[in-house]
Amino acid sequence: MSSTLQLDLPGVQARGDSGRAARPATTPVPFVEPTPAAPVQARKLSKRFGANLILDQLNLDIRAGEFVALLGRSGSGKTTLLRALAGLDRISSGTLEVPQARAAVFQEPRLMPWKRAWRNVTLGMKIAQPRERARQALEEVGLAHRENAWPSTLSGGEAQRVALARALVREPQLLLLDEPFAALDALTRIRMHQLILTLWRQHRPSVLLVTHDVDEAVLLADRVLVLDRGRIVSDIAITQPRPRSAERREFQLVRAQLLQLLGVEVEAPAEVLVPPVPKPIATPFNFSNFSI
Amino acid sequence: MSATTSASDIQQHGRAALLSLLSFFKRAATPLLLLVVWEAASRSGVLPDRILAAPSQIFVTLGELVASGEMGRNVLVSLGRVATGLAVSLSIGTALALLAGLSRKGEAAVDSTMQMARTLPFLGLVPLFILWFGIGEFTKIALIAFATTFPMYLTLYSGIRAIDSKLVEAARLFGLSYPQLIVHVILPGALPSFLIGLRYSLGVSWLSLVAVEQINASAGLGYLINNARDFMRTDVIVVCLIVYSLLGLATDLLVRLIEHYALAWRPTFIKD
User: Domain B58-269 classified CATH 1.10.230.10?
Assistant: First the structure.
């Protein structure tokens, strides 16, 4: 797949994967050595299961406080990469540096059904006044009133918020999100997007969000990576200020490019395919429910 | 009850209660009739005392045994044996189930042995145990422990194996130590299955108690029965049998109570 991107857009920068030819871009950013103390540094990271090479000499840096989204088709190695970063799977070769303080939210909440919500939040933590800490964390996700609830009585969105509180109460330097909104209904997902951004701004962890949803990636992330056959084939910085609107042209351009990279044939709006006009196009309609 | 309950509602409730009472009497009619026939047969001499005492006599004997404290004393001895045996089997069963449930090596070492030993009829082991350990308390408790270890082991083991590995993974990711993992994830997760085993074990423990108390007991319900047999006191035997079944019923209730509190998180137990 060709990964060459022509992005001459305000607010969108394309960067070449290491080991590949640098691509033309308005403001090229050197890839391998971004800042001296990137909390996540993967170098020539490989992971194989038997004869299958799932991650192929992958290089990745995530800077402190950076929100990175990882897109890829099924089987591209997204989850494998996340599991490696989480320390759940050993890597086959290469080096990987990750912060000690990590937490994750998965697609399913993975709450202990036999523990009340607040006990799930502070699960395994040896701290003074765990209940207070749990309550604060639940308050941040808007669930203080459900602190005593059994997980089986929570709705999907509520359970996922408890899972989020459980991750954040540990003050992680690296927050791993494995399609955490995939199982939620559309409205709940929008609320969760807002919540995750709010919490990210407050706690400033580095975030790696694995998702299938291109819009979600572009709405939330500072950088969108595309993984294909175990390699990062594209690394797109998104500098549009938040809140971002899916109605804006820049947004649609990036989305079209990403979908193309993911192998989806899209009938892109005409203005996406023609060379961009410098002056921003006014959007006639403002679907405020899709902007966050 | 809600404030909107109307008179007709109450009437309906009353009718329902009456109907359920009626069906209770219907169900109780046959046993009551049998009791009456039994009593009549005893009174008329058709059913002699040495075969089976009259229900009224059994009732009187129960009162006497309770009043004299003889029943209480012997029930306590029997309860003590069951409790000791269960404590031993609980410890051994839990340890073995953790060993087999948490590691492949442990499973290889423990499980096949347990599956084989489980098929041994424990009553058949009584002569061997007597040869090995004599006819004292040790043999009695060892037999109860032996018989009840298997249900505890099997259910806890399968409970551990049935735990969602995703939960274990999440717990590991959140930094739980191995002992913490066992306490906060493995054991609570296996508890529903284990409680089934506990209930079964309690049933088996009463069964084995009856058997082991036939061996040279000087106290306990079995001793009362043996004594009564020597004096042809069928009333005492029946009283003891009734007490055995009441004890079985009581322990079943106990497990239900434990389930109610320990499994409060399960959707079936959650009210409103």
Answer: no
